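Table 4 source record.
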Amino acid sequence: MSNTVTLDPVFGCALFSGRKTTSGYGRSGKVGAHVVAWERAFGPVPSGFVLDHLCKQRDCVALHHLEAVTQAENLLRRSLRYRSRRAHCAQGHDLRVNRVVTPAGGFVCRTCNREAKSEVLQA
């Protein structure tokens, strides 16, 4: 799947450039491209959980932009007010000073973006 990804240098998204659903999610076979990326890195999505795109970019497969959450939490995160109250990313970085707002209205961590970019450059 790596040959079908374009890196967004500003917002840190890894945009899947292959086939997409009508709602904009990348497709890899019969499942979402983001699910394939997650499962390659971490194994199956835990039972009862879904993957939330923190960047709100549906065709993003960047692992640092994906988080396994319950469906209830995922629904809460649709609210801009709820998302904006989040103080720390999954890695513990302070989002009050490290927050990047994506064009789709998502909030991603500037530090995590920087670290992920350096990992890609080193690979």
